[in-house]
Every structure is written in structure tokens, then in C-alpha cells.
Amino acid sequence: MNVSFEKVDKVNALLTIQIEKADYESKVAAALKDFRKKASLPGFRPGMVPTSLLKKRFGTEILAEQVNKILGEEVYKYIREQKINILGEPLPNEEKQEPVDFVNKEDFTFVFDVALAPEFDAKISDKDSLDYYQIEVSDEMVNKQVENYAQRGGQYNKVDECKEGDMVKGILGQLDAEGNVLEGGIQVEGAVMLPNYMKNEEEKAKFNGAKVNDVLVFNPAKAYENNDVELSSLLKISKEEAAEMKSDFSFQITEITRYEASAINQELFDKILGEGVVSSEEEFRAFIKKQMENQFAIDSEYKLTLDLRAYLTERIGKLEFPEATLKRIMKINNEDKDDEYIEKNFAPSLEELTWHLIKEQLSEQLEIKVEQDDILESAKVVTRLQFAQYGMMNIPEDILLNYAKEMLKNKQQVENMVARTVESKIAQKVMEVATLNRKTISLDEFNKMFAQEEEAAE
Fold first, then answer.
1. Are residues 232 and 341 in the same domain?
2. Is the CB of residue 67 less than 8 Å from the CB of residue 19?
3. Digits of tens for pLDDT over the chain (458 positions)?
């Protein structure tokens, strides 16, 4: 066997592998022998088919299989041993690769195009300066979060007099032009309304100060500005009937309920954070502040990663890539797409490839290693944040773990978590190695900064 490697230019190379009969003869014989043990042909008992017959009928197929197996092993063995940094997979050379004749020839030559990764230096040191934005958690933000939790921990209570925001329940009755109950008209028992959602202020005002057992006269069509969906739902009629409905209705109030926020007490603390986690309002606020700081630290880390990417991409400059070979690879990986798609997406793919190569180099320099436990922990962080969006803070560890494991059953999610973990570890190491210009800013300033960057990118 002979293997040769020829660099065509800085980012393209030819890998030639010559396989002779001596390289595959024993393996083909062993494969044929193994195949004979299982082979079954008409007229022969299983395992008793003559080797000569099997070789005549299946020899070419077995030969091709073994040669291709040796070829694959040798290609990646050579690349690995020579420490060649390649992009994608080696592809058969379209000009020098001759058709492979497994029937008439014993020696075979394979020529591959190899896309080489460009050489550059993205290593980081204390000479590299980056801004790090720490989001300040103000008392106002903590107060607002406490109010949100109090609202979530509140409950509906029955009251005697209606105020803005209350919910009313009662009996609806359609009236005629003289204001009397219309015989055979619409009646709805147990009708529920939130007057605050009425569009007409005059109709809405009729409910303010009303009490249980009061009878009001109002016009649903006016109240909801002829919204047939709202009227259909309230009056239990079709949308077509609702579109024609203009009548006044009487409404006898049978119940008024008001949603009242929870008191800031131990019951709320236990409901939101878990029993006994904190024992005073001061501890509750401190816990919330710390949690918000931890969540914002993830945002700050993400911002640092984006800035690091932009900084290093600019520092190393435009890289030279083997574009023709990479487009072939991209086309193979997107067989259902046309050439227009390849051209449109090629430049963005090079940007992502550049960042991927930068991360690989940083991972080697900073000795970044990603274990299975790291990926699981990243999935738990994402899961915890998702629950937190709905105010669910005291998720038991076993439930959190189960959700994270379920997430990682999806291949795409695993790839996302690996990328997230690598970038997070790189950012944490860079914070130790590079010179950081720490800046404390408000959440509004942080969000505006992102909005401005997005506008600039468009």
C-alpha cells in the first residue's frame, strides 16, 4: 500500500492511496469464508455452498466491500497520524479519479480532494481586552418581582360591591324595545363577565359600584363594540346571530369576585421557593435578588461570547477557505437543495465555520473538556430558566433532572447543549485569562445595547 499527500495550495490537498492485492487478499478470503458459513443457495445445505461458487457469484461484491473498508481506515489513519486539520470529508477527485474496476483489476488507486483548515492564531492572553457587562439588580426590580409573586400567589375572594378589575356572575335576560323581558328571548344563567374588558366606557361604568342582587340594564353590542366572537360567547348564540344582536339586556348580579394578591408572608415564601427556604421578607427579597443576578450572569456571559467572537474574527482577519471543495460538501449534505440555495447560504456558513475553528483553537489552548455531566447540567440550566419564566422556582431536583434527560433524547438538542456548554466554558476561562473592562449597567441599558447591535447588523 502506498499513501501520498500533496498540497495543491494553502487550503487544498490531494490524498492518493494505492491498494494492492497483498493489502486485501487475506481479508477477502476471511470475509468469503465467514460468508460461506451463513450462505444458503438452492441445492445446497446452509454452510455447504462451494467456495468457488460463492466467489464466482459474490466475489466482486465482497472484494469491493473489503477494499472500501481498508480505504476508509487508511484515509482517516493517515489524517490522524499526520495531524492534518481537515474540513468536512475527503471527496473523490473529479478529474484524477478513474473508474474503479473490481472485475478486471487487482490494484486500485484512489485520489481524494482534501479541504484543509486555514492557519491562524486566535489564542487569548491578558493582552486582549474585552468589555464585560454586569447587569445591576435594583431594588425596584426586586420589588416588581415580589409583586409578581404576590399576584401569582393570590386568590379570588367573594365581595359585595363591584370595583374595576372584578369579575361578575349573574343572569342575563333579553329586553324588548320598551325595556320589558322579551318573551322567548335569550336568557343565560351563570353568565360571567369582566367589565374591565368592555370597550365602551359608558357601558363599563354601569357596573362600577354595583352590588350583589342589583339588576342592571346594559347593551352587550355596545359594550363589546359589536364583536361577534365576544357576543357569541357571552350570549351562547352563533356568530351570525351575534352580528345581528342589538338588544338591551338585564343583568342580575348573583356573585362578585375579586382577585387579591397574596400577603407577603411565610405562606407565600413556601409556595414560591419551597417550604422553609427563607423565613422572613428580608430573606425572600435577598433570595430573589441573588436569583436574578444569577440569571443575568448568563446574559452577561452570552454577551461576552458574542463580543469575543466579533473581536477574534476581526483580529485574525479574513481567512482563506477551499471554497470549491466546501461547496461540494455543502451540496452533498443538502441533496434536496439547488445551487441557488448553496450560493445564498455559503457565506453565512463560512462565518459559522470560522467561529467553529476559533472555538476549537481556544478549547485546545484553554484545555476545555466537555463531559456528559456538563451537557446534562446545561440542559438543567435551560430547564430551570423555562420553569422560572412561569414563576415556578421550587422545582424538585428529580423533576428537573427528568425534564433535562427528556430534552437530551433529541439529537438536535444534544448538539445545542454541547455548543452551549463549550461556549460557556470558553467564556468562563476567557474571564480568567483576558483583561476585562467590567461595566455595571442597568437592564434597560443592556437591552438597548442588544437592540442597537441588531439594528446595525441588519
1. no
2. yes
3. 899 999 999 999 999 999 999 999 999 999 888 877 777 777 676 766 777 777 788 888 999 999 999 999 999 999 999 999 999 999 999 899 989 999 889 999 999 999 999 999 999 999 999 999 999 999 999 999 999 999 888 889 999 999 999 999 999 999 999 999 999 999 999 999 999 999 999 999 999 999 999 999 999 999 999 999 999 999 999 999 999 999 999 999 999 999 999 999 999 999 888 889 999 999 999 999 998 999 899 999 999 999 999 999 999 999 999 999 999 999 998 988 888 999 999 999 999 999 999 999 999 999 999 999 999 989 988 888 888 776 676 777 888 889 889 999 998 999 889 999 999 999 999 999 999 999 999 999 999 998 887 776 65
From the CA atom positions of the chain, what is the Rg in Å?
36
> Which residue range(s) make up the domain with 172?
155-260
From 232, 260, 288, give the residue that closes a domain.
Answer: 260
31: its cell numbers:
470475509
| Same domain? 281 vs 378 | yes
Quote the CA–CA distance of 386 and 413 in Å, as a whole number.
15
Query: Are both 134 and 223 inside the same structural domain?
Result: no
Mark whether 160 and 283 lie in a shared domain: no
Same structural domain for residues 244 and 341? no
Same domain for 33 and 179, yes or no, is no
**In sequence order, which residues have a C-beta less than 8 Å from that of residue 398 and are 6 or more positions away?**
none
Q: Which helix (H) or strand (E) holds 293?
A: helix 281-316
